[in-house]
From TrEMBL:
It comes from the Eukaryota. GO terms for cellular component: membrane. Residues 1-127 form the Protein root UVB sensitive/RUS domain. Residues 130-267 form the Root UVB sensitive protein C-terminal domain. It holds the Pfam family UVB_sens_C. Belongs to the RUS1 family. Its main location: membrane. Keywords: Membrane, Transmembrane, Transmembrane helix. The chain crosses the membrane at residues 12-39, 60-78, 84-101. This is RUS family member 1. It is found in: Membrane.
């Protein structure tokens, strides 16, 4: 919108500026549509997604009509007054961003994504306490979080987890686990079995978060695999209690919003 307001001041570049603004609007529309779908599913508590969508559409129509009425009042005031136009733009943009921030902060999601699961796991390991969805959503960052941890990649190909037969042997230290974990290229890489369930996804992610919090990209490869082994021991000891605590706290453990890629792997134990 700001780019469109500036377009008349650059007649030679008017077409390019307006087209660029249209591209940005399209990107925002796609992102907004994806976010709206997730929130609609969250709000459809009684499987009434169509009803929620209809009400959302009617509210949006009402807001657009109100905006039209306000614009009819403002247009005569801002015509031939660039200073007032830009001032009102920044005022309304600030109000819009503030309202969106408060709206996002008011949403309480009961499904686990990476940020919420990390908060819950850290509380559990530090205090032995599983926070509720309301408490966790208050701590979840709205903007990017700048923590010095290794990034996590989920559902990757096998060659991204192991890069040699020796690493493959180390990754298979727990043949009964429905996932493989390795640390390569400065990332915690998780390869998921084709037979893994939601519980296994949560378990693999907990292990990856624990590793991410405790490793640095400058560490040695041998240290990495020692920490992977320790993470298996920790999760074997604590995960059942953690999972029960998560359910008791009101979290939905039947599905997750973890950002898994589509790669899945099948492996079989060696027959002697």
């Amino acid at each position: 919108m700001f780019v469109e307001i500036l377009a008349p001041f650059f007649p030679a570049w008017f077409t390019l500026i307006v087209c660029t603004s249209g591209i940005f609007k399209s990107v925002v529309g796609v992102a907004g549509g994806a976010t709206r779908a997730a929130l609609t599913v969250h709000q459809a508590r009684r499987d009434n997604m169509a009803d929620i969508s209809a009400k959302d559409g009617s509210q949006e129509t009402l807001v657009n009509l109100a905006g039209l009425l306000v614009s009819l009042i403002l247009i005569p005031l801002v015509t031939d007054n660039p200073g007032l136009t830009i001032s009102l733009f920044f005022l309304f943009t600030a109000l819009h961003l503030f309202a969106n921030y408060k709206a996002v902060r008011s949403v309480v999601m009961e499904t686990l994504n990476e940020a919420r699961l990390a908060i819950v796991l850290r509380h559990f390991l530090r205090d032995g306490y599983v926070p509720t969805p309301l408490e966790t959503n208050r701590e979840e960052p709205v903007f990017l979080e700048f923590r010095k941890t290794l990034p996590i990649k989920l559902g990757v190909r096998l060659q991204e987890v192991v890069q040699s037969p020796e690493q493959f042997r180390l990754a298979l230290m727990r043949k009964d686990a429905p996932f493989l974990i390795g640390i390569t290229n400065g990332c915690v890489q998780v390869c998921l079995s084709a037979h893994a369930h939601t519980r296994d996804e949560i378990r693999a992610m907990c292990q990856a978060i624990w590793l991410s919090d405790r490793l640095s990209p400058s560490g040695r490869h041998q240290d990495f695999w020692e920490m992977v082994h320790k993470s298996y021991i920790l999760i074997d000891t604590e995960f059942d209690r953690f999972h029960k605590g998560v359910e008791a706290a009101g979290w939905d453990v039947t599905r997750t919003l973890l950002d898994w890629d589509e790669w899945r792997l099948e492996w079989k134990p060696k027959i002697r």
